[in-house]
Amino acid sequence: MNEGMAASSDRVMLGPLVAAIDQGTSSTRFLVFNAKTAELLSHHQVEIEQSFPKEGWVEEDPKEILQSVYECMERTCEKLTQLNIDISNIKAIGVTNQRETTLIWDKVTGEPLYNAIVWLDLRTQSTVERLINKTPGRNKNHLKHKTGLPISTYFSAVKLRWLMDNVAEVQEAVLSRRAMFGTVDSWLIWCLTGGKSGGVHCTDVTNASRTMLFNIHTLDWDPELCKYFDIPMEILPKVRSSSEIYGLMKICSSLKSGALTGIPLSGCLGDQSAALVGQMCFQDGQAKNTYGTGCFLLRNTGLKPVMSDHGLLTTVAYKLGRDQPACYALEGSVAIAGAVVRWLKDNLGIVQCSTEIEKLAASVGTSYGCYFVPAFSGLYAPYWEPSARGIICGLTQFTNKSHLAFAALEAVCFQTREILDAMNQDSGIPLTQLQVDGGMTSNKLLMQLQADILCIPVVKPSMPETTALGAAMAAGSAEGVSVWSLKPEDLSAVTSDKFDPQINPDESELRYARWKKAVQKSMNWETSEPVPNGNGETSIFSSAPLGLYILGSMFMLIGAKYIAGFQD
User: Carbohydrate kinase FGGY N-terminal domain: from which residue to which, for each copy (predicted)?
Assistant: First the structure.
């Protein structure tokens, strides 16, 4: 028998399989794993288009998101069939998703009422400033004791508030009790379990904990928080654990993926929680850093929520079963990581595809004193400074696109260093190595830079799809499915690559100090509080003294322009 025949006959005997939908900010994937070995058998990926209707606005089309899931399922099922793998061996499907991204739809028609407002979106900055100004002592941590989060544009509640204030269709649907709110997981689960014909409207504790409407202690929606944001509780999804059967798949039987009809959807985790599970960080103190569109460092703090004194978030890590306790994590969130490479590609045309960045940066091996702070959406952890904007500084006539590419990669590493420092201060126990995952980890130069800038080893699993793996583990281990054991003795050993620091720690500290200097220069660019007009757009006018000053300046500018018009 030849090797190909042997391989195909072996594959037929794989035993139970578990699939995962991984719906990220920039792409959607559907992946199928062997439940006994955690081996990735097949997958398909589709890019998602982001739209930027106005400065600081980031949106995605909910129907495109859903269609991308169907396409990935269909293509993956075709690939499995070609590999002679029986699709009927798929016993469960898990969902993992970009968090905080906010959707609202009509439960009668099943139609979205607006585009999905992406987590990076800044249109709610004026709302956030008004809310903070209303709090005692203008304290952005006013709700942190319940939510674990600062009041920020990042989280879902303010995006939902904007939709209710500015979109007539949303206002009408809320009044007529047809509106459903959800993050991406809720939208997908509702659609995949039947949509307007009996779809299940739910979310899990990890996604709910990113809305600012969820009490991380009671593990449910908080009436006081909903009242604070003036959001009716009936539009919210039911909160479930991260590992239980939510409903059964309903897919058109004429498609190959129609074979997935009737399979339980039984796992749901926000993408960063899924990566924590996929990296098997089940012990208090274990941590991982994911390099995707943004960069997210999570450290498991066990059964108790730990509040940070250094700008980190307190979040629900996972709750793996209805009767299981919730575990918590400290999180350092960086808005722009992989997104900076996409910006260099799409906005500046410095590279044609994202993989070229490594070669370009490696060609110089230094930023030559150039520092790039990609604060496109303000600064997240540890600063939570929405007024910051991106800057590139330290430029000379010698600086070229290769130095800029190198500075962009360094920026990702410096931002990770800042959140790692904050985490070490909060926990009092410094990490001795950093477990990493996500799309950017295929960049070996970035991984080496990260080890050099942190002065500790960086460890990357050989199988990079840890986010999807986490969702599959949650789905496969759910009660009523039980094809994936999460007992420590049953977890598969993970092979990994290790990057050790190679530069002098003094040089690392010097570069980091200059980075910190650059960060300070990026702050306070957007200092006035914008006030929404009737179209939901923002105006630059702020409270009294500054408002008068800006008005006066504007009249002078208009006058100058008017006079100049006569001179043309």
Answer: 18-278
Angstrom CA distances, 30 to 262, 278, 304, stand at 17, 16, 33
| Contacts for 184 with CB less than 8 Å, ≥ 6 apart | 23, 65, 97, 98, 101, 103, 116
Q: Which two tokens stand for residue 142?
A: 């006013």
Give the model confidence (pLDDT) of 44-103 as tens digits: 999 999 999 998 899 999 999 999 999 999 999 999 999 999 888 999 999 999 999 999
**Could you report the per-residue pLDDT of 431-470, keeping only the tens digit for each?**
888 899 888 898 999 999 999 999 899 999 888 889 999 9
CA distance linking residue 391 with residue 148, whole number of Å: 30
Assigned token pair, 45 = 């990926």
Tokens of 498: 């290790």
Q: What is the DSSP letter of 439?
A: G
Name the residue with tokens 């006959």: 9
- At 45 the three-state DSSP class reads strand
Phi-psi sector, 219: left (phi>0), alpha (psi -120 to 50), beta = left
In angstroms, how far is CA 75 from the centroid of its own chain?
A: 25
Is the CB of residue 155 less than 8 Å from the CB of residue 149?
A: yes
Predicted TM-score (pTM) of the model is 0.83
Written as one letter, the residue type at 48 is I
First vs last C-alpha separation in the chain: 86
Q: What stretch of H or E contains 509?
A: helix 505-522
Distance between CA atoms of 331 and 333, rounded to whole angstroms? Answer: 6
- In angstroms, rounded to a whole number, what is the distance separating the alpha carbons of residues 118 and 110? 20
Residue 280 DSSP code: T
3-class SS letters over 241-267: CCEEEEEECCCCCCCHHHHHCCCEEEE
